[in-house]
Amino acid sequence: MATHWTLEDLYRGIMQSWIVLVGTIVLFTVAGVGVFLIYPQKYTAEAQHTVEPISVLSSGSSFNTVNMETERVVATSTSVLTRAVEGLDDTTVEGLRANTTIEVPRNSQVLLFQVTANTPDLAAERANALATAYGEQRTENARSVVEQTTEELSVSIQQLQTLAESQAPGSSERAATELQLQALLDQQARLTATPFYSGTLVTPADAPQQSNRPSILVFVAAGLFLGILVGAIAALIASRVRSGPGSAYKRAKPEGAPNEAPPLPDGAEAPGPTEEDDSIGEPSGTDDGTPGPVSATHRR
User: I need a surface site. Which of 62, 130, 166, 230 has the fewest CB within 10 A?
Assistant: First the structure.
């Protein structure tokens, strides 16, 4: 028959081996402190870089907004990381990418470069290097776009000038061509004269003062919790093992079974049967000699 455990039974079982419980709690608490001491410390530094429209590109209009999700991906591109790694020691493109997180504050045109490293100075150095590399790469891309656009405009202007020279002076065709030519010249002048501003490193990263390692209280609390849990189980097991088969695992005595006589001292003899015991099971008779009824014991 299955044994039903109650809270009182569990409490008694644990209290019978409370030393095991206390020892386990102390052991796990000390282990938590040990894990805290050997837990690797990481430091995260953050640099902030603004993202501005690069320049006037076409039709005299400028881009007032920037696709920040695109810039977020560009910030960790291989070209940017390669440029950053060139000025750093003991790191690779993949290593820098794995320890870099790019955040974009909501409704802003700012990139947050968060770089994690083993030391505070190294984290700050890598964050600033990556943000600077991003700005340089974006400036170089902007310059390439402006130069390419200027060259394309120069080609179109040259073609219109050649076409205008071939047309009759004072004709409507030449007047229309000269209007187109003047529009391209104005666009080229604006593109060349307007300085582009791709953004800047507004907040360089400083060496962080605290590491990413959790507080020692977290490790101690975890050790206490595991110690109580494992210690309670160990205490219950110890209580059952200590009680042995004569207690917890002993089969219950059947109801109605005769009580066993206590053990006799050495050299003592067991008492013999009494007259009352001899009379049990013998047939009884009447005074006139006729046999009486046989008892149930004798009949068996």
Answer: 166
